[in-house]
Amino acid sequence: FSPAGQLSVGQIFQLDQELLEVLSISSEGDAAQVLRGSHESVAAEHVAGTALYPLDSRTEILPFGRDFFGSPASGSYAFSVHLPGVRVAGASLYLTNARGNSAVAKRSVTNTLDDGLRSMQGGQVTLQIAGWLAIEDSATPPLFVDRPLVMRDLFAFVQEAPSVGPVTLRLRQDDDEICLLTIEPGATLSNVVNGFALPPLRSRICSLMSSVSLKVQRALPEVTLL
Predict the structure, then answer these.
(1) What is the tens place of the pLDDT at every residue in 18-71?
(2) Which of 98, 165, 158, 161 is CA-nearest to residue 130?
(3) What's the pLDDT score for residue 22?
């Protein structure tokens, strides 16, 4: 691990769908002993070079009254937590009263297509290019982003499929490339890029730009970037 001093005992990391918990740290701070399969996740083999994600934590207190358990209220109890734009990987729960704390129950929720539960923020961003496609930079007008926005899926589609070569689009924010989308010959939908490892769109006036490389012999009427 680098740099030194970034680790702490009890810190949780996610590796694919497995959660790792730091048990101890070397005196140099560049190595750690971890618990594999934390929070009842599955300890599995991982490909060398797989990204390791440190997880943030948040504490919520769920209140309830005296003699709650066994009462009719306990059967319909619900507590909502406002967590927009996050991906939940696991949770720990314990109860406390005047006599002390209970044992801690831990559960991972990484065994999903999104490697967790993504709350998102709602809404959809559509960038549309009307008319004939060509090799272009800054193909769409600037987009104003009023707050950081996480992205779930990114894809492009055309109304008429290319017949000779692929349509390639580079989606960028300012000078930073977000992803590359390709519509293959005979298809109208590009590859779908999962936003799991993508940073959020920055909250400022910015431009989303695409470079469209055409290798087709006829015009395509419309492209939409989502």
Answers:
(1) 999 999 988 887 788 999 999 999 999 999 999 999 999 999 998 888 888 888
(2) 158
(3) 93
User: How far is 223 from 225, CA to CA, in rounded Å?
Assistant: 7
What torsion do the CA atoms of 31, 35, 37, 39 make, to the nearest 10 degrees?
-120
Name the nearest CA neighbour of 191 among 220, 214, 168.
Answer: 168
Give 8-17 pLDDT, tens digit per residue. 899 999 999 9
Pull the structure tokens for residue 149. 């926005």
Distance CA 213, CA 179 (A): 15
CATH class of 127-225: mainly beta
- Residue 122 corresponds to which tokens in the numbers above? 């709602």
The helix (run of H) or strand (run of E) holding residue 143 is strand 143-144
What is the SS3 assignment for 23?
strand
Give CA–CA dist 23/21, Å, rounded: 6
User: What 3-state DSSP class applies to 73?
Assistant: helix
* C-beta separation of 149 from 143 below 8 A: no
Average pLDDT over residues 181-207: 83
Q: Give the CA distances from residue 33 to residues 23, 47, 81, 145, 153, in Å, rounded to whole numbers and listed in that order.
A: 5, 20, 32, 42, 35
pLDDT (tens digit, 9 = 90+) per residue, 110-155? 999 889 998 888 778 888 887 777 777 777 777 777 788 888 899 9
The rounded radius of gyration (Å) of the Cα atoms in the chain is: 23
One-letter amino acid for residue 87 of the chain: R
- What are 58's two structure tokens? 């948040």
Residues of the chain within CATH 2.60.120 domain(s) are 127-225
